[in-house]
Design a protein that fits this description.
This protein has 525 residues and is of the alpha/beta class. It has four domains: 154 residues, Rossmann fold; 77 residues; 155 residues, P-loop containing nucleotide triphosphate hydrolases (Rossmann fold), CATH 3.40.50; 70 residues, Helicase, Ruva Protein, domain 3. It has 21 helices and 16 strands. Strands 4-3-2-5-6-1-7 form a seven-stranded mixed beta sheet, with helices on both faces. It starts with a helix and ends in an 18-residue tail after the last strand.
Length: 525
Amino acid sequence: MLTQIQQLDAAFRGAMPIVAMEVLPSDEERIMNELTTYFHPLGYNIARWSLTGILTHYEIANGVVLTSDRSLPAVNHDPISILQHIAEVAKSNAEWIFVLDDITPFVDPNNHRYDPLIIRWIKNLFWQLRVSFTRVIIRGIAFSGCYQDFRGIVSVIEQEPQNPADTQKTLHEVITNFVKIFEEQGKNLTVKIQNWEGLTRLAQGLTHTEIEQCCGQAVVLYRRIDERLGNVILNTKINTLKQINLQFADTPTIEVGGMTVLKEWLAERSHLFNPELHSMGFPYPKGVLITGVTGVGKSLIVKTMGKIFNMPILAVDLGAIYGGIVGQSESNLRQLLSAAEAVAPCILWIDEIEKGLAGLGNDNDGVTKRLFQKLLTWMNDHKQPIFIAATANNIQALPVEFTRRGRFDEIFFCDVPNISERLEILQIHKKRYNFDIPNLDLNLLAQLTEGYVGSELAAIIDRIALLHIQKKPIDYSAVVNGIIPVTKRSPEQIEAMRQWAKQVAVNASASEPVQPAKKSVRIKS
C-alpha cells in the first residue's frame, strides 16, 4: 500500500495539481516533515499557509528539516490572498508545493464562513496549475463525496491506518529515538520488552505522534520502557476511542435469562475466531442482527457476547458520527471503522441501528446515504476478525439491502419470554439481593407475568425487595398490576413484529407457544 506521500507524488505526476489530504491534527507537523524530506530533494520549494496569515517555508539542510516564517504584503489571513499569491507564483513556472490549512470552513455551505468566491478561485486555479509546476495540498477534512463542484478537480487522499508491520516499525523508531536522546545527555534508558507482538497489537490504530506521547509518558512514569508501556497505550486508546464515539462496553453483572437458541448459536460460532481454523479456510463470522420487543434484553445479550467470544466489545452510537463540517461525517465513520480494525479481534456493537440510519429516504444532502453505502461496503470487504452485533427495536425501519441474506450470518427475533424463561429471569434478578425474602413464590410470579419482558420482571423483583425491607405486606397481584407491560401498551406493533419475524428471522428462544399480544387488562388482586 502506498503511503500518503507516495500517493501525493503519484497525483502530482498524474496531472492532478490540487490534492485534498486528510491529516489528523496530531500528525500535522510530522506530515510536513515527511513531505519536506520527500519533495525538497526533488527540487520543490515548500510553503505552508494557515489562518494566521503567515507563510512558513520548509527546507532540508544537513538532513534536518528547517522552517522560516515569512510575511508577504500580499498574503494575510484571507484565503483568497494565498490563492492569488499561488496564481502569481505559478506564472513563473517555479516548482512549488503550497500546503493550505484551515480552508475547509470556507467551502462548507453549512458553515457561516462559507464563501462561493473561494470555491471559484480553487476551480480556476486548477486549470492554471495543470500547465505549471506549482502544486497545492489542502489539508484537513477530506473532500470525498462532499461537493460535485470539486469532482475531477480535487484529488482526495484519505489517511489510512498503519498495518501491524508499520506500527511495530514506528514503535522501534520512536523508542530508539528516546534512547538516543538519553545517550546525548550522558544517560542510559533501559528498554526491556519481550512481547513485541502484543505491544504492537495494542498500539494498532494510534498515530505516530500518539505513540511518541505514550513512550514519553512511560519514560516519565517508570524511568524506563518496559511491558508497562502497554498500560499507557491502552489508556490512550480508550481516550481516543471516546473522542470518535467508540467506547468499550462494560461487562454485564448479571446473566441472560432465556434466549437459549441464540446463546447456543453464539457459542458455536465463537470457535471460528480460532486462527488455526481461519488458516484452514474457515471464514470469520460476519455478525448478527438482533431485533425484538423493547426491554427484552437485546443489549444484555450483546454485552454477554464479549464473554462468549473472549473479545472486547466496542460500542458505537451511529447517530453521533454526523458532523456539521463538510465531509466530517464520512471522516468520522472512516476513523470509527479504522479504530475497530485496529482493535480486532473485537465485537462492534451498533445499538438501535435504525435510529442511526433514520431519514435515509429524506436525505437532502445525501450524507446518510453515503454513510450507509460506505458501511455496507466495509461490512462486505473487511477482512479483520470483527463480529458485528447490531440491535434494532424497529427492524422494519431498516433498508431492505441491510437485512438481506448474507449481510449478517443470522437475524434473530427476541420475543417476550415464555413461562420457563420468566422463571429463570426472576431467579437471576433475585440473586442481585444478598438477603432472603421468606415465602417468595417465583413460580406464581412467573404465572402472573405473562407478556412481561426482562426489564419489567426486574422491576417487579425490585418492588418486592423494597416492600420486604419496609416490612410491608407483599401482594403479588398488586405489584404486577403496578407495571403495565409493553405488550399491553403496544399490542398491534408487537404482533406486526412477530408476523414479520416469522418470515425472515430465527426465534432467539426455544419453541414454546407465546400468546398473541392482548389489549391492556389489569390483573385483579
